Amino acid sequence: MKFHDQLYIDGQWVRPQQGGTFATIDPSDESVITQVAAATAQDVDLAVKAARRAFDEGPWPHMSGAERATILRAIASGIRERQDDLAALEVRDNGKPLPEALWDIGDTAGCFDFYADLADDLDGHREQNIALADERFTSVARKEPVGRAGAIIPWNFPLLMAAWKVAPALAAGCCMVLKPSELTPLTALELADIAHQAGLPAGVLNVVTGLGQDAGAPLSEHPGIDKLAFTGSVPTGTRIMQAAARDIKNISLDLGGKSPFIIFDDRDIEAAVEWIMFGIFWNQGEVCSATSRVLVQRDLYEPLLKRLVEQTERLSIGNGMEEGVLLGPLVSRGQYDKVLAAIARGREEGATLLTGGTRPANCDKGYFLTPAIFADVPEDSWIWKEEIFGPVVCVRPFDDEADALRSANDSRFGLAAAVMSRDLERAERVARRLRAGIVWINCSQPTFTEAPWGGYKQSGIGRELGEWGLNNYLETKQITRYDSEQPWGWYIK
Fold first, then answer.
1. 280 and 250, same structural domain?
2. Same structural domain for residues 212 and 173?
3. Which of 1, 292, 360, 443 has its CA 20 to 30 A from that of 279?
4. Are 118 and 171 in contact (CB under 8 A)?
5. CA angle 288, 292, 293 (to 5 degrees)
């Protein structure tokens, strides 16, 4: 695909109105990958108008679910055909290790297949009869697409996050404008090309690359958008919510987290260490649901820390295309500096840095960082309370179940949580008392397209994935009919 310096609007590749571009950077060596089209408000307006025409005048919203499913499956097939190339592009654009990128691309294709199935199923469940107390009337509840959707996605799982929004929106019959992160825009453009080749009608999916203030803000504020879906930080989510309020715009927000992981002392150390590492070092810790606050029952605390440090220091760090690498660079200079500042703050606040938090000896270029483990982290410290979004884990001991739950739930976030115990009755009890939208038992981070995703409190509004993700893009209409031959007779007797 050779259209990186162009936008995909109304089924065509077009240059931005002002002709601007920006560089996307390989975080492993800080080199420029390519120049990407920089959309502005003018381009966003053209994209929204294209989506509006496609929705108001085009065939897409009026096609059967089965017809839309055919195109969604063709998109899934196109992704699989390009899986290796797409994964390699994700590695260059984001930095993640190749095995993780391949996993992501496979999940992306699976997401389109899943929502194709739900689109198929929608044909048989679009309308539901409603039993009424008055037999003179019949009524149905009907599901219809919400209209023109805008999606703003993050840089940590570029193509997968696009699929989480694009696939259910298209399945529902919506038309969409997608704005990827300026840090990782390349696979979103590839998705546009794949959708085009799959026969998606013009205007149904539009992709505008650009900076947040130049393209993201105009999209979130555009009055022609009926529904806005955003994944990213709480501050940006706050601004988007404020903008949406002006038009009473339908929104869903998948925001930050500071997820707790409770480990009771009846668990095997090796299993606990494995899941701690997977919960915070996967994708370089650039995961909104990362279980970055680890609470370990006191008798297990010291031996677990010792083993965690040993295993963490063995992690292979380097370019994501190199075999055996398990930790790539952070996504950008800005994110690298933020994580370094958080580590420095943790030390200043009295937490004990057991290992990491420095540049690896074998990496003289790129945004590489050795994973950091903090112990004895004060509960009132910034690093215990705030999202770092990097390979930094904070560990504290606890004495009993009540103590663990109090500490775990003491957060303005509520995206995810995890608990480990051989006592499944206890684990299930704790899971139901954790104030989070996603809770894992004896694991951390497994994500399934079939299950709902979203958080409590400041971690967001609404749910993605599963049938809940489809419902994000559907409105419910009541249609009631008067069937009686008898005159109503209220005014005319």
1. no
2. yes
3. 360
4. yes
5. 130
Q: Considering Cα of 74, then 76, then 82, then 86, what sign does the dihedral take?
A: positive
Six token digits for residue 15: 């240059």
Report the alpha-carbon distance of residue 190 to residue 4 in Å, rounded.
9
- Residues facing residue 97 across a β-bridge: none
Model pTM score: 0.96
Distances (CA, A) of 414 to 190, 260, 272, 278, 437: 33, 9, 22, 19, 6
3-class state of residue 226 by DSSP: coil
Determine the structural domain holding residue 216 and report its residue range.
7-255+459-478
Structural tokens at position 250:
């339908």
Structure token digits, residue 346: 């943790």
pLDDT at 2: 65
Give the start-end residues of each E strand in 180-318. 205-207, 227-231, 250-254, 260-263, 293-297
Q: Are 465 and 110 in contact (CB under 8 A)?
A: no
For residue 402, the 8-state DSSP code is H
Q: Are 226 and 219 in contact (CB under 8 A)?
A: no
- The 10s digit of each residue's pLDDT in 47-91 is 999 999 999 999 999 999 999 999 999 999 999 999 999 999 999
Furthest-apart CA atoms within the chain: distance in Å: 92
Distance CA 250, CA 261 (A): 33
Phi, psi of 119 (to 5 degrees): -65, -45
**In the structure encoding, which two tokens stand for residue 123, read together?**
């044909």
The pair of structure tokens assigned to 52 is: 């509006």
Other C-beta atoms within 10 Å of 95: how many?
30
Beta bridge partners of 26: 31
Residue 135 lies in a domain: yes
Q: For residue 204, give the CATH number of its domain.
A: 3.40.605.10
- Compute the distance between CA of residue 364 and CA of residue 28 in angstroms, rounded to an integer: 10
